[in-house]
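User: Hi! Is it possible to get a structure for several chains at once, not just one? Here's what I have:
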Amino acid sequence: MIRVQEDDFDIGVEIAALTAEKTTIGGVATFTGLVRDMAPVDGADQPVSAMTLEHYPGMTEKKLGEIEAEANRRWPLDASLIIHRYGRLEPGDQIVLVACASAHRQAAFDACQFLMDWLKTDAPFWKLEDTDAGGVWVETRATDDAAAARWKRESEPGE
Amino acid sequence: MIRVQEDDFDIGVEIAALTAEKTTIGGVATFTGLVRDMAPVDGADQPVSAMTLEHYPGMTEKKLGEIEAEANRRWPLDASLIIHRYGRLEPGDQIVLVACASAHRQAAFDACQFLMDWLKTDAPFWKLEDTDAGGVWVETRATDDAAAARWKRESEPGE
Amino acid sequence: MKILYFAWMRQRIGLSSETVELPADVATVDGLIDWLIGRGEGYGAAFEKRDVIRAAVNQDYVPFDHPVADGDEIAFFPPVTGG
Amino acid sequence: MKILYFAWMRQRIGLSSETVELPADVATVDGLIDWLIGRGEGYGAAFEKRDVIRAAVNQDYVPFDHPVADGDEIAFFPPVTGG
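Assistant: Yes, the chains can be modeled jointly so their relative placement is included. Here is the combined structure:
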């Protein structure tokens, strides 16, 4: 299941809904991304007072749906969920939730990391951070590209 | 933080408490273990109606505290949490929650997997499953030993 | 043809989207970029780092030699930073 | 000396814990197991798979050549299956 929304979410409620009535699940791996209060600007950390997440409505849902389907092809998942917020957020706010449920804990962990790595490099979102130096668009990090590269193989969707 | 308890837990409440007032956290990785309704007995899957978790009070808390400290030595975590239940549980019930918060998502994921792998092989818990064939003590799986072995190094606590 | 711009490309061009009629001599994303740059300073600034920006045609990532046709939804944006 | 048994070892021995006086000729976990086995059938059944079971002295895992002393808390149990 995928959701793109401005509203916040409750991890406990989401996990309960994801696993309800499914008693074959051995475990659920999740990752929740939060807004940090500091960010590197030109090499030096700057305080961040807020962040605005822009996205590409339509393409976002399409790409999230594709990558969730790919995760389910690669791993034996009983259930999966991606929630990504957009709009204005403050430090400490939740940005994203990825949850993968499986009979096998390694599958749940791997699928969860795969989805997060992919979200960082291929989901059409952009972050504008409000800093003392003004609004700064967050740049791609080389470590994110490297993290995503470890999952590359011919059957991967998208680019 | 570690907790050993009979009562259930709410993941959303636990994550909120873990990350409250800490705005340096970039993300939280969690794993929740659930009771499955089927289990292999002598090579064939049998329905499980309930599970009883026995543990070694005192040693459990000591070992959980040690391994949590080790995870914090190995990875730059802002916060960590292990909750492990004991007593009688039914299929779908939550058994364990591990949560690791860090500025870096790979650190959060790795620490979370490290703690889960360790819990499977070294935390003094034993599972008794109620099946049609009677009470069956869950046996260690070779895959769990292999998963734990990948973290072995000289500084590891315990055996 | 609908063209969308996101993040700092949107800011530099001053538009989030526009509808244009595809010029007869534009056949690829590359050709479209050349034509857009000719339309004004904002476009020049937005497409300055041509090796950095990404393009999508009908909501799929494409290389710049990908064909474009009237009726397509084309999007240009900087590297993404979600998650 | 307090000795604790867990899971199917507890069931086979029929005790979850007992307090015993350490015999003078018992110096290690191995020696303690030999002595316990001599105490009755249940112990024999519990310690049958000696290469499988684990021992803890004062709540730390130990190998079977680990020394034991009066006042120690010793525990015997099958491989753990938490998480």
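The beta strands of chain B are 2-5, 27-34, 38-41, 44-55, 77-85, 87-89, 94-102, 125-131, 134-137. Chains B and C do not touch (no CB pair under 8 Å).

User: Great, thank you!
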